[in-house]
Amino acid sequence: MRILSILQAEVVKSHQHNFHNKLIYFSLLIWPALLFVTAYYSFKPFNLSSSSQLSKYMDVNQITMYLLTGYMCYIYFWSLVQSAWNMSYERQAGTLELIFLTPVPRLTVMFARAAGNMLEAVWLFTAFTLLVLLTTGHAGEIHWWNVPVAFILLSISAIVWGGFLNIVFLFSRDAGILFTIFEEPMQFFSGVRIPVLAFPLWGKIIAFFFPLTYVLEIFRDLVLNGKGLVELGEQSFILFCVLALLCTASVFLLKKAEIHAKETGNMVLF
Amino acid sequence: MWLPFSATFQRNYLVMKRAFPWSFFLGHILSGFYIIIFAYLSYFFVFKKDLSSSFSTYAGTNDYLSYVILGGLLYSFSVSLLMIASRALITELREGTLESLLLTPSSRKGYFLGYVAQGLMRVCVEFAVITSAGYFFGLHLHHINWPGVLSVLVILVAATFSQALVLGSFMLYFRDTYITQNTLFVMMGLVCSITFPASFLPDGLRWIGNIMPLTYGVDALRMVWIEGKPLVETIQLLWKMIILGLVYFPIGSFLIKRMEKYVLEKHFG
């Protein structure tokens, strides 16, 4: 009950903060849609016939579906980088201090903030994805009975990732640079646009550090290839380990930073 | 005009030395660099140099890597320049110096030229960094028609500057830079032949590229850089850029003047 009320408060806050201005629809819908179209056409200079080199890694006819699922999952993760980036404004504006003065559990606030911001940021592009599916006639290629499981998995992973980022951004002085580091590398190293399997070793190592890589692999297998969760046991286990690691790191960082804050009266750890 | 030019130039030079947000600088370099690295990965590792036959027809060259690297280079060049010129007045507004600027009888032309001239110093450094990064990923640096490259860049700078005036007035109207500028930049990435020839696009989208100076600039640059062609062969593209510049300039100057009044009425006592 308590968690729900915190979640509700965060959703309301995020809504009032972002939706007062109609321009928000550009960043929620127009940009991701344009990026998706650009990614689609970036494939065009290459040989995409059945003899294509790409067919080693994926079905060439599925490129639209591949990119569409890729970008949708990317938006879930990316929206949380953005929300964590806004954390620094909350610190500057003093609302963070007010929240920390109330008796709410810190960890719950951080994860509820991620969940609230995610709900606010992804509904539009998810609807857009459905619309594209229906209008382009690809809807038949989707394994619909796996869709709810896939979305639950995606949302949970994104929230854990978002909570972790919130905590990192919360205690660091200049987080703007993370924005530059995460935006595009996350797009191509975690397999949003091209399959990770095709990368050279150094590319795979970079991919290894983005939780999105693991989520995308499972998401596509569930939704596009119709595999069951049992078949994906190994991958799911790896994802579970990654999420557990992120959770532990979050708890640890938050404790450390709070002790630091109590000693020095200063929220800045890094 | 000379006095506001040199005053603005000197002020911005000091700002750059002492308090410039260097993350912008890094961000521009990285945005070009990411385009390059993505092209490199897809060309060598995903598609193993297997191009479609329509690419060389549309692009006029078979050198995919140089094509995309020059695209990324000029995209980041254009984005930097647009940001510098269009954010000038709104930065004054945010920092609280717009009122004093408007009170002085200084020429706005000198002010903008000083702003851009100083910004070009930074843009040139970015250009050099991305070019050398591109060299390691397969951009070739021989048989280049250097005077041709220079002329294309000069015309592109002038046309982009006119476009930035229009963008700047939109920014003043919405009192926003983040959404306005990035919408334009994402759009430019799609329609201006950056990572693929715009001819692949459906007609409905392609016409948007026709009103961007960058589309012509990047094609002209590729002709003189990759193929080392003489400038005469690009003359048609250059004319299109000049005409776009001549169209944007009066619209931009008019809108900026209007917006100065609008901002003054709306946001000052």
UniProtKB/TrEMBL annotation, chain A:
Residues 23-257 form the ABC transmembrane type-2 domain. Keywords: Membrane, Transmembrane, Transmembrane helix. It holds the Pfam family ABC2_membrane_3. It is found in: Membrane. One of its GO terms (cellular component) is membrane. It comes from the Bacteria. The chain crosses the membrane at residues 23-43, 63-81, 121-139, 145-171, 192-216, 236-254. It is a multi-pass membrane protein. One of its GO terms (molecular function) is ABC-type transporter activity. PANTHER family: NODULATION PROTEIN J. This is ABC transmembrane type-2 domain-containing protein. It comes from Neobacillus vireti LMG 21834.
TrEMBL record, chain B:
The keyword Coiled coil does not apply. Keywords: Cell membrane, Membrane, Transmembrane, Transmembrane helix, Transport. It is a multi-pass membrane protein. The keyword Transmembrane applies. The chain crosses the membrane at residues 20-44, 64-90, 111-137, 149-172, 184-201, 237-256. It comes from the Bacteria. Residues 27-259 form the ABC transmembrane type-2 domain. One of its GO terms (molecular function) is ABC-type transporter activity. It holds the Pfam family ABC2_membrane. Its main location: membrane. Signal peptide: none annotated. GO terms for cellular component: ATP-binding cassette (ABC) transporter complex. It is found in: Cell membrane; Membrane. Belongs to the ABC-2 integral membrane protein family. PANTHER family: ABC-TYPE MULTIDRUG TRANSPORT SYSTEM, PERMEASE COMPONENT (PTHR43229:SF6), NODULATION PROTEIN J (PTHR43229). This is Transport permease protein. The lineage of its organism: Bacteria, Bacillati, Bacillota, Bacilli, Bacillales.
